[in-house]
Amino acid sequence: MATVFYQNDANPAALQDKTIAVFGYGSQGHAQAQNLRDSGYDVIIGLDPQRGSAKQARADGMTVVAPAEAAKRADWIQILTPDETQAEFYESSIKPHLRKGKILGFSHGFSIHFKTIKPPKDVDVVMIAPKSPGHLLRRVYAQGGGVPSLLAIHQDASGRAHEFALSYAHGIGSTRAGVLQTTFKEETESDLFGEQAVLCGGLTSLMQKGFETLVAAGYAPEIAYFECVHEVKLIVDLIYEGGLSRMRYSISNTAEYGDLTRGEMVVGDETRKAMKKVLKQIQSGKFAEEWIKENKKGGKKFAKLREAAKQHPIEKVGEQLRAMMSWLPTDKKKSTEAAKPTGPKVVNA
Questions:
Q1: Of 59, 108, 57, which is closest to residue 83 (Cα–Cα)?
Q2: What is the pLDDT of residues 289-298, one digit of tens each?
Q3: In this structure, what are the phi and psi dihedrals at residue 347, rounded to the nearest 5 degrees?
Q4: Distance (Å, whole) CA 150 – CA 107
Q5: Does 337 score more than 90 pLDDT?
Q6: Is the predicted pLDDT of residue 349 greater than 50, yes or no?
Q7: Which of 67, 264, 265, 339 is most buried, most CB within 10 Å of its CB?
Q8: What is the pTM of this model?
Q9: Residue 96 burial class via C-beta count within 10 angstroms: exposed 0-12, middle 13-18, buried 19 and up
Q10: pLDDT recorded at residue 347
Q11: How many angstroms separate the CA atoms of 70 and 65, rounded?
């Protein structure tokens, strides 16, 4: 079982006299920065002052300075830019300003575990990874609660890295819920596996294959969408609230029997073999190498895959059906889609 830390385990004063620079003001950046500020910590945002996110940060009352200047001024450097561009950003804006006694912080272990970033030995290297989207981290904190986080130590040059990391976790509100001890290796590999095999890759592929199976058998695409995509949220919400047992308690006996007798036929031994293959590619570094190489080549393959996925019939049918659902935030969704880049993600700094 993982070791869990709470409020009484943290020393908030450990970072009270230090400047924390948060690099990136996206989902995690805005939430972590604002929570830290509201906890009484000295926070600055490292961003190009001309970026739209920098303007938003200033509107939120944050102090914004250029990345290199922020790295120079900071005692704690929290890098929240995309994995695929972190190494380049680190080399240009962070590395020249690292010195003995500074703390290098992350919320995902990709760059450290796969050694695309190699920090000097005289700095602490830690990870505090909230287990929720940034908007939820911020909202729950503002309500007086917190979301759980993972804590890992890669380098403890000061002898106080764990104390500093818990202080940071306290500042974003996570010690209110619980902070679980892990390692950069465990967090990185399990996170990538979860995304690829279950949460994103596995789930989207399962939904698409179900949709395609029903349509190919002559069922209306709209009916197939409702059964294989729309209702996924209803099931996931029940699992989120109380686990698999809560979901099975809430559905019909017919559905539960079908779950317990047919689920293994679809996701069984062959799927486990495929999952083990995915995990081995993550553990060996093959996936990381492939992803980094893809971005160095300009992300052309990624862009083609993304565009092809958008053209799948499931997306067209879904768009039509969602137009019937007045409760959905359609304007927000459209603006988000329009703003999303078609190529690789860019550095959020």
A1: 108
A2: 999 999 999 9
A3: -65, 130
A4: 9
A5: no
A6: no
A7: 67
A8: 0.89
A9: exposed
A10: 38
A11: 6
